[in-house]
Design goal:
With about 300 residues, the protein is an alpha+beta fold. The chain has 3 domains: about 90 residues, Pseudouridine synthase (2-Layer Sandwich); about 130 residues, Pseudouridine synthase (2-Layer Sandwich); about 70 residues, Archaeosine Trna-guanine Transglycosylase, Chain: A, domain 4 (Roll). The protein contains 7 helices and 18 strands. Helix 1 runs parallel beside helix 6. The two termini are about 25 Å apart.
Length: about 300
């Protein structure tokens, strides 16, 4: 006997303002239970101590998670000077200390070195795999870890405030794979001191920002007192950065059933105006204003990459 699906079929995004102390998986599980949804996933892990934007995908929206994870992230964080910790954040044990405190001008002078494509070593307490094991599992055993440098992209790195000599508050806009804890550790070392992240908040994750986000408590209230449109964003909300391309219903049905849509017939007559598409382009195929599939233009055909079974 086939196993009965648990929960309701719900498709869309709910950006949650993650509270401190929760893992991303715990927040996702809680949101799924609140909506009684059959399927959910999140669009980019936040450390338990961190707060801020955690986009939760439901149903067919989980097929668009990669577009959020690959998008730009914006963080606001505080570096505490004078201590280096095993986790490079507030939760770790002190492993080094320094009496030196950088001035505001010291910080402003070195920040340009951390903008652009840079190399950084991930924290020992990270999800990077070492010989098949997660680095954080090895780190907890006390085993010495050697992680390789990785190239990441930092688009913006701004000093917002120096509230006192022991702290500095920054804002960063960065690409996928950037560790804020590593940035804090590395700028501290560059300033001839040590430091760690004592507060961390994500204010943007791909197309989602703080203004889109709600707390789990607010979600609980809205589910019982408001229509889904009050808290559930469309599946295509994750696809703001990729183009849309309109098909007719016949062409849309071809994609839904895994068949490519030909752009021209054998005589060279065009079925579609594709002058806006370049070979290899990925886009959201639409029909009647509704998303049909994530598709790719290749070899004169439109081919489905991920079919979105939302409105059928």
């Amino acid at each position: 006997m086939a196993r009965k699906r648990r929960g309701r079929l719900i498709h869309g995004w709910v950006p949650i303002d993650k509270p401190t102390g929760w893992t991303s998986a715990q927040v996702t599980s809680k949101a799924r239970r609140i909506l009684d949804a059959s399927k959910a996933g999140h669009g980019g892990t936040l450390d338990p101590m961190a707060t801020g934007v955690l986009p939760i995908a439901f149903g067919e929206a989980t097929k668009t998670v990669s577009y959020v994870m690959n998008g730009k992230k914006r963080y606001r964080f505080t570096v505490s000077w004078g201590e280096e910790r095993t986790t490079d954040d507030l939760e770790g044990e002190i492993k080094a200390s320094s009496c030196h405190r950088p001035t505001k001008q010291n910080i402003l002078t070195i920040l340009p070195e951390f903008i652009g494509t840079i190399e950084q070593v991930p924290p020992d307490f990270s999800a990077i795999k070492v010989a098949g094991e997660r680095a954080y599992n090895l780190a907890r055993t006390g085993e010495e870890i050697f992680l390789s440098k990785r190239k990441v992209v930092v688009d913006e790195f701004c000093l917002l405030e120096t509230p006192d000599k022991n702290h500095a508050i920054f804002e960063v806009l960065c690409g996928k794979g950037t560790y804020i804890r590593s940035l804090a550790r590395d700028i501290a070392r560059r300033l001839d001191t040590v430091g760690y992240v004592s507060q961390l908040r994500r204010t943007q994750c791909g197309p989602f920002s703080e203004k889109h986000s709600i707390s789990l408590e607010t979600l609980q209230t809205l589910v019982h007192s408001a229509p889904p449109s009050a808290y559930l964003l469309d599946v295509e909300a994750a696809l703001d950065d990729i183009p849309a391309f309109t098909l007719n219903q016949t062409q849309a049905d071809h994609l839904r059933h895994g068949r490519p849509v030909r752009v021209q017939n054998s005589g060279g007559r065009s079925f579609l105006e594709t002058s806006s598409l370049v070979e290899g382009d990925v886009f959201c195929a639409m029909a009647d204003g509704k998303p049909v599939a994530l598709a790719r233009f290749a070899d004169g055909e439109i081919r489905a990459v991920r079919v979105l079974n939302i409105y059928i």
